[in-house]
Amino acid sequence: MAGTGMPLLDISGLSVEFRGGSRTARVLNDVALTVAANETLGIVGESGCGKSMTALAILRLVPSPPGRITGGRIVFEGEDLLQASEQRLRDVRGHRIGMIFQEPMTSLNPVLTIGDQLSETLVKHLKLDARAARGRSIELLRAVGIPAPERRVDEYPHQLSGGMRQRVMIAMAIGCEPQLLIADEPTTALDVTVQAQIFELLRELRDRRGMGLILITHDMGVIAEMTDRVAVMYGGRVVEEAATAEILSAPAHPYTRGLIACVPDLDAEEAPGADLVEIAGMVPSVWDLPRGCPFADRCAEAMPRCVAEMPPTTVMTAGHSVACWLHQGVPS
Amino acid sequence: MALILFMARRLFYAAILVIGVLILSFLLIRLAPGDPVDTLAGQMGGMTEEIRAGLRSEYGLDQPTLVQLGIYLERFATGNLGYSYFFNLPVLSLILQRLPATLLLVLTALVLAVVSGTILGVLASRRPNGLLSQAITVVSVIGYSAPVFWTGMLLIILFASVLPILPVSGMTAAAVSGGWLLDSLDVAHHLVLPALSLAVVYLAQYSRLTRASMLDVLGSDYVRTARAKGLEERKVFFKHAFRNAMLPIITIVGLQFGNLLAGAIVVETVFNWPGLGRLAFDSVLRRDYPTLLGLLFFSSLLVIVANQLVDVCYRLADPRIKAS
Ligand SMILES: Nc1ncnc2c1ncn2[C@@H]1O[C@H](COP(=O)(O)OP(=O)(O)O)[C@@H](O)[C@H]1O
Ligand code: SF4
Ligand SMILES: [Mg+2]
User: In this structure, which CATH number among 3.40.50.150, 3.20.20.70, 3.40.50.300, 3.40.630.30 belongs to the domain A1-96+180-264?
Assistant: First the structure.
């Protein structure tokens, strides 16, 4: 299943900065990622590592000001989105790339009906008329498992539970059959049974439609269940990337090892959703990133060199790269 | 249906409120120094004590205050607001005759303030640090601190002497009467300055509020969702952001309607606009109790009606609010 041939999405050198007064925060630093069609890439890391910002940057939705994409390429279907015009970008957003946000409770407009919010994407991208869009909205609601969609379509977001709202968001994101779906912690705010249902739904949609999927989570259990490949993020950087099976069996970066150690018994076939137990210490503030390895102050294996110099990303074996001084000079 | 029930209940409470306002105003007016008969006597260049006593008993002023209140309320219940001491006319017809002028002034000012305030606020929110944003901040600070009469006087000075293109007094030019079209144009011409002085404070406030509200909403998750769908910025602005941003404005308009009405009294006096405000001002000077009470009754009625309308608007604009 893992990607072969030209990737659907190829991100390289992506950097994002935030300005606050005279200070600058490097929220993303030289991020590189690829996603192939029909592949699920997981992005994992603790809160504040830059996962959401990466997702927003792909659609050029980084809040600006204070944020700014300062460099890199985001090549989607052969086209660099960072060079695209606003108009071209609007054709990609919601059409070729769908996005599901972390906050189901606030991501729908409270004064517009579900049907209205679903239809407008269909009208804009698929050029459906109002009637056809309404019919298709009902179908989409049914496809994401919302009961009585004929009635729900005319309701407002506040009349739906959090799980139902997230389903609406998913329906909205897949409405135009995108090539790539980005799901940013789609179940964070939801209870465990609903979480399992949402993941089941995402898996089914991916398999049926052959989309590329980027699944952002802070949960290694979800990674194990759902993804083909994983990028581990820390301090605005991708610190390790490999096939999921390889990451789980042979994690190279101390941070990745920490994340895995936190999950109680990954082999047991339990429902995803077991939360991370803390790795001692805290994620560094983006306003105050160290010069060397961002993980140094929490790393049990840190060496003097780690504090002084940023470890470069090296390829360990084909498809497995890591940014850590422990693995410098390992032949590829 | 629920909405109708809700409004019925609101109206019931409103009625109780109005009666309360009436009783309180009645007592307050009696507490004020001065007496209508003395005032009348003063204007007529003196009266004998006999005539004064006769007038007092005719007006019922020789009775104890509470008895007077009882009589007033009893008449009020039958729709009789009494007679004006000064005009010798039924208070009701006096008020109805002047109500349109006030409504015209207040509604024009309100529409002017809300429409231009929101337009300016929305434009400013597109560039939160732009020139328009800064201008709005400055103007609204001045607007907050400038009393209505001061703005009015300034406009009068400007248009009476410096730039005499707008009339500064009255509602019609005596000479004109050339059919309804010319007459309306004439009234509109006279309306410009009073409406402007009444509106300017609110215009400043609403533009600032709209700007802040728009900026708040533009940073919300659902606006981000709208952008992520690939909608044009125009749609994001007006369909997704604007309606949400208007909710606090609707609330404020409702809360401030009373102030607007109070402002109208000042403006009508400054510009000699023949409405209820002018009448209220004169009635206070004349100690014309029945007229004054009638006016207080009508203004509370206006405020209540306005609040009901605002409430309905709010309910239409925000589906989260259930009629219950
Ligand atoms: N609007 C903002 N202003 C300032 N800093 C921000 C803003 N949004 C996010 N950040 C910072 O950017 C970093 C990355 O955030 P984010 O991508 O949301 O993390 P994640 O999704 O991995 O939890 C965090 O340290 C966060 O504090
Ligand atoms: S570079 Fe050094 S501090 Fe950073 S993870 Fe590797 S060993 Fe730890
Ligand atoms: Mg996030």
Answer: 3.40.50.300
